[in-house]
Amino acid sequence: MMANRLVGLRNQLVRSFSTSTSLLQAASGSPNSSETASLVTPPIPVFGLEGRYASALFSAASKQKKLDQIDADFQKLERLLTQNKSLADLFRNPGVSREQRMDLIKELGLSDMTRTTIETLVDNRREKKLTKFVTVMNRLMAANRGELSCRVITAKPLDDKLRNELDSVLKQFSKKGEKVTVETTIDPTIMGGMIVEVGDRYIDMSISSKIKAYTDILTSNV
Prior knowledge:
By secondary structure, the protein is α+β, with helices and mostly antiparallel strands. Helices cover 60% and strands 11% of the residues. The protein starts with a helix and ends with a helix.
């Protein structure tokens, strides 16, 4: 059954990658000012509010030749947010004041450019976007290193055979010379199947999502 899901993954990825050119064009748009035109184009398209912050930071770091520094900052942030869930909660909790958040940011030991960007996020009352911003920024930096970041969530660990088949499928969609990095996570709540993130693409083939879809159909007809 898992092998069939890998075939399904391959088909969905084909459809997803075929639209990459149009997505890039839509994300870039037409520059409306000299400031927009002067931005350094990120290596992959990123979307949403967090994508705009990530693109702006990438452009600024690129011009100041600080990409390695920014890369290290965001890998550190991802580790901190993953290992300490209460950290992310502090940025989402409305009971935490702006001053307390600013003090916390200073204690993280980040470079001036990264710290200023996160402080701007807080000043604009977008602190709830921090986790997504960190995720998008790390995906962007991985692409800048010539890597295709993949994240796979399954209900139970994959055996060696299935893991090798999955790696083989994912490698087919990397560019020439691009290194594929695969992070696997176990989440029993998805019940079966898998959820796959390839770059900026999200494919949910979990049993839990199918049950929810069927439930929504049934309840809508009641």
